[in-house]
Amino acid sequence: MRRAHGRDGVHGGSTGSLSSRYSTSAASTSYWSTLGDAKHVPGRKTDISDAQWLQRLHEYGLLRASFRLKGEVAVMRAYLRQRERLLDYAASHIQHMQKALTQMNLQLHHVVTDITGATGMAIIRAIVAGERDPMVLSTHRHPRCRASAETIRQALVGNDREEHIFALTQALELYDVYQAKVALCDVRIEAVLKRLRKVSSGPAGKLPLVGTTKKQSNSPAFDVRAALQALLGCDVTQIHGLGAYLALKLVAECGTDLSAWPNAKHFTSWLCLSPSNKISGGKVLSSRTRRSGSRAAALLRLAAVGVGRTETALGAFYRRLSARVGKAKAVTATARKIAVLFYNTLRHGMEYSDPGASYYEESYRRRVLNNLERRAKSLGYTLQPASTPG
After folding, report:
1. 51 and 136 inside one domain
2. In what order do the strands lie in the sheet with 32-35?
């Protein structure tokens, strides 16, 4: 930390837990926290030369302040990241359970969509408890399971070797342990949301209807959509692609107040979803989007992939762009559109209303037709609609 030209601050590299710890400490003591990358350091690159270079840049005010979450939002982000980490650990034990079942020649994963669903877990717990009869195991089928009891019975004909039963038992116990830890995280996250709601001034309006009531997998145990509505005063899940849990993680990464970015263009540039602008000598060298490890950008890309399968305006935009420039660029462009909608909803209270895929296709058709008419007029021609054959 150094005071230079009336400026207090902590400057350091933007990677590693050390910089995060110092920047958090500086924010708590009202110091101006600045994190920057040490690039193009003169001479041989060492930690000492990096520190001296950053110190000099900071003295002249050439480093920009990093965006740091504060207060309860930062606490909620920590709990959500811990929750995601626990879910990753639990997922590895799901794979262990499936491997043990396969080694026992029990093809449960072929007859149920998810072995951690109601039918799958009931059968696995019965096997661990000592049940081996396929007929009895098939009776644990949930009424809404698509596979019939006979199909499940045939898939559960296998061997019951001791070592595989032991591996299945341990994997199930570890899976249950991590699920219990996830439930504790849910309690903490709900409590943080309640504390944030107390200091929030936004009115909690009535929740609009949703197109589907299907619960997302691995979503928290409480009503996330209602909690977000009470906190933000608007329903961001009306934006297609943003489910309740994904929206909660996005709010935890970006915060509830987006005034740190003057407009949506600054916000999408921070997310590295907008084209870069490398110009030298009046020539554009590259306009590729910058690489980023931002979790918020990854969430928006995930939303873009999901919205591409829907009959919405965003879905039509994704499919049209995907056919023209490829899926990777279509995902980035659609993620940018969702980011703009998210920014305008939180910052300006915009209410999103989807015009539909047909409206988008028709507006795109009119736009192409207008361009063709303008081009034909510049060449001295006139466009006329083709006559319909009688």
Report:
1. no
2. 2-4, 7-12, 32-35
Number of domains making up the chain? 3
**Cα dihedral sign for 72, 78, 81, 83?**
negative
| DSSP β-bridge partners for residue 278 | 286
SS3 213: coil
Q: Are 111 and 135 in contact (CB under 8 A)?
A: no
Among candidate residues 192, 225, 258, the one where a domain is terminated:
192
pTM score, two decimals?
Answer: 0.82
Q: Which two tokens stand for residue 254?
A: 């970006």
Q: Per-residue confidence of the chain (390 residues) as pLDDT tens digits? A: 445 455 556 665 555 555 555 555 554 433 344 444 555 656 677 777 777 877 787 787 777 777 888 889 999 999 999 999 999 999 999 999 999 999 999 999 999 999 999 999 999 999 999 999 999 999 999 999 999 999 999 999 988 899 999 999 999 999 999 999 999 999 999 999 999 988 765 555 566 666 555 667 788 989 999 999 989 888 899 999 899 999 999 999 999 989 889 999 999 999 999 888 888 888 887 888 888 888 999 999 999 999 988 888 899 899 999 999 999 999 999 999 999 999 999 998 888 888 877 877 888 888 888 898 888 888 888 888 877 665
363 within some domain = no
* 204 within a domain of the structure (yes/no): no
Domain enclosing residue 30, as ranges: 2-68
Q: Crossing angle for the helix pair 162-199 and 71-103, nearest 10 degrees?
A: 160
